[in-house]
Specification:
With about 280 residues, the chain is α+β, with helices and mostly antiparallel strands. The chain contains five helices and ten strands; from the N terminus they run βααβββββαααββββ. The chain has one domain: Hotdog Thioesterase (Thiol Ester Dehydrase, Chain A, Roll), CATH 3.10.129.10. Helix content is about 15%, strand content about 35%.
Length: about 280
């Protein structure tokens, strides 16, 4: 099936999702919260509950969205490449309705064997019509490169050549992907062992938004404890697949008063490619 470039510029949706504190709690559990029953409990317990900001990255990668915006790609090779989530208003309601419209902004060619990059921009509103956040999300379709499209624009974020100012570690639970998928991303690469083997993985891989949530929690704990609503931006590149059971470390560099650059790495293998890289977090 050829790549349908005529879809570029089209708007899709709205994709509507009702949520309650149960959905927020499930998302947080799928992002590794409270694995000891205590740490980051505020994201899963409705008493004085806080919303984990990376919840805003989830609507645009919902299975309904990715299946609807089908420009002729091979679904088996679909990987989340990056996202840049900007908060216009903090997510504070513990129940409500989210409505997301998505524009297919661009399709770019990385070349044969390297894949296609798809740029989606989604605006999400609450039930009152208030724009909560905008997410520029990129997917890499690894089996669809070499179709003759334009190269992707460059996006450079500095990671300082020095020791991080803050580093936090944790072990990713073996069942974290099984929890996270219940928030709406049902791709078999996250649950089906035979499917994973057919695609060169030793086991199902973790969702990128799930392990981005780990980095987000670590930032909040280190820089704005108890105040996740202060975030105005969370941006990252997904640079390697992450297997549940891995010990990860979020390395953070303070760049100025309200800006941190970060990456998420394998704490037991400093030579391994980072799972997340070129990350930016900004806050008010």
């Amino acid at each position: 099936m050829p790549i349908n470039t005529d879809m570029v510029g089209q708007e899709f949706g709205p994709f509507v999702r009702d949520y309650t504190f149960r959905d927020l709690s499930l998302f947080a559990l799928g992002s590794g919260c409270a694995i000891d029953g205590r740490t980051d409990l505020e994201y899963v317990y409705e008493k004085d509950m806080k919303v984990l900001p990376t919840f805003g990255a989830m609507p645009i990668v919902d299975s309904e969205v990715t299946r609807t915006i089908d420009y002729g790609y091979n679904y088996a090779g679909s990987l989340h490449w990056s996202f840049d989530l900007r908060f216009h208003q903090p997510i504070t309601k513990l129940a409500g309705k989210l409505s997301t419209t998505v524009v297919l902004k661009g399709l770019f060619d990385r070349g044969p064997g390297k894949g296609l990059l798809a740029q989606h921009v989604g605006d999400t509103y609450d039930e009152d019509g208030t724009l909560l956040f905008t997410n520029e999300s990129w997917d890499c379709l690894i089996f669809d490169g070499g179709w003759g499209g334009e190269p992707a624009p460059k996006d450079i974020v500095e990671i300082p050549d020095r020791e991080p100012d803050v580093e936090l570690r944790e072990v990713v639970p073996e069942n974290q992907a099984l929890l996270y998928r219940l928030s709406g991303d049902y791709h078999p690469q996250h649950v089906d062992w035979e499917y994973a083997a057919e695609n060169g993985q030793p086991r199902p891989i973790l969702h990128a938004v799930s392990f981005a949530g780990i980095a987000c929690r670590h930032f909040v704990r280190a820089f704005v404890p108890g105040e996740p609503e202060r975030l105005t931006r969370f941006k990252t590149r997904i640079t390697a697949s992450l297997l549940p059971g891995t010990t990860v470390a979020t390395q953070m560099w303070r760049m100025d008063e309200n800006r941190v650059h970060f990456r998420l790495v394998n704490a037991d293998d400093p030579d391994a490619k980072p799972f997340l890289n070129f990350g930016v977090i900004e806050w008010r």
